[in-house]
Amino acid sequence: MAQLGDQQVLVLPEGSKRILGRDAQRINILVGKAVANAVRSTLGPKGMDKMLVDEIGDITITNDGATILKEMSIEHPAGKMLVEVAKTQDSETGDGTTTAVVIAGELLKKAEELLDQEIHPSIIIKGYKMAEEKAIEILDQVSEPVTIDNEDILKKVCITTMSSKGAVGKSKEKLSNIIVEAVKQVAENTDGKIVINKDYIKVEKKEGGDVDESTLIKGVVIDKERVHSGMPRKIENAKIALIDSALEIKETETDAEIRITSPEQLEAFLDQEEKMLREMVEKIKQANANVVFCQKGIDDMAQHFLAKAGIFAVRRVKKSDMEKLAKATGATIITNLKELTEKDLGFAEVVEERKVSGEAMTFVEGCKDPKAVTVLIRGGTEHVVNEAERAVEDGIVAVVSAIEMGKIVTGGGAIETELAVRLREYATQIGGREQLAIEAFASALEIIPRTLAESAGMDPIDTLVQLRSSHSNGEKNVGVHVFNAKVEDMLKYDVIEPTKVKRQALASAAEAAEMILKIDDIIAASRMKEPSQGPQGMEGMGGM
């Protein structure tokens, strides 16, 4: 609404809501803190789990930050920005989602205290930017190198990442061995640089059994069964054809009408269809293939001919699985069946249909140096197997992150304390009002060791005092050992994390906090009127 003399001029549509200045900042900060508090208790190996129930009653039990925030259906725009932080962290590094959101929430909390001291948001943002750049610089200085050949260190990185997932518990060691072996298997050396495409590690889950029964298959597991019971259940020395076209009679692309006026014509028509299908199967036989994976459908008649020829066939295989099969077996995906030759076939020692938890699955194993592998996860219940799957996926991305950047740091809140101590020293060199913002950034980082101490039943203030003292004396690896409930050297206990995880968490948390602090005006359009209800204003803006 604007004023022109005595006349009111309507600028925004009727029913719109507008919140200005400090009120807008306070609401956004309040929402940011609320979202961070929602996941804060899940941090670390002794973090608590959340039970999330969606609209249709499906239950998810997890302490994975990204999963919790995704399932919470947060409505407020500022809250959605923190959800984006978690999603980015999850897709980039697989771990540290809770860390990123908790730090972002704490940065907003500390900024609110500075705003109360009449410090302008632009000064806080400038100080935060300076602190973020310095923190990343310090992070690179204190990091230790790691390569793909350091299997022991990579396993420790993996165990640290999975330690917060209660479902894997005693199986961490076995799963970390599986994950490191899987990552090393799919790693490729391109121009002297290690390239790892984590999409070529397929994670397949099946309820039943124990998490300890999870295995690594050096090949691909397809959650499909053979198309015909007359086909062999097991093929040794498999020659595999990958076909991206239907083994069916195609309809004509143009509208056509076929007039059949006698039984002889109908019989000839059916005979021709059968002949075409027989020729398709003959083409596969001529190429010496004894296993067929088809991305499209396979006609019933073609299934019969394939079974008679002793060929194992699976239909409607997902495109992503076809790509993994090509990578694992060395086969070429063929679009036109007429062009299939023996050179296009892939090889595996065994292709077999096996029952897992009462459901048939196709195992393609014994490939020569496969660049695609499958981790088959087992678990007693649906919730256990789902949480184990999330743990394995986090472990895979953490190991890949460690190898890609080639740097690691000590976990257990040690690195956050070291950064906080060094940032406070840096703040004294800067001076001006920005110094206060840099000190606030340092204090915000200490929320991580503080939360870990709280989850272990330790006194958070005493813990922080001990940590600061140790780090000021140059003991950069001292952190919170939650299982012993003591402040100890975390390197001795093999608590190691990829530098990339910490770097991404710092960058995304700082950027989200800076973006939210820059907002001084919220304009929300009115919701569409529903027949049975009156107009809704900004109710959704405040909900979570």
Would you mind describing this structure in some detail?
The structure is a single chain. With 544 residues, this protein is α+β, with helices and mostly antiparallel strands. It has three domains: 237 residues, GROEL, domain 1; 107 residues, GROEL, domain 2 (2-Layer Sandwich), CATH 3.30.260.10; 149 residues, GroEL (3-Layer(bba) Sandwich). Helices cover 47% and strands 19% of the residues. The protein is built from 17 helices and 23 strands. The strands form eight sheets. Strands 11, 12, 13, 14, 15, 16 and 17 form a seven-stranded mixed β-sheet that branches. A three-stranded antiparallel β-sheet has the order 6-19-22. It has a three-stranded mixed β-sheet with strand order 9-18-10. A hairpin with a 4-residue loop joins β20 and β21. α5 packs across α12. It is elongated, with a radius of gyration of 29 Å. The C terminus is likely disordered.
Features:
disordered C terminus, GROEL, domain 1, alpha+beta, 544 residues, seven-stranded mixed sheet, GroEL, three-stranded antiparallel sheet, elongated
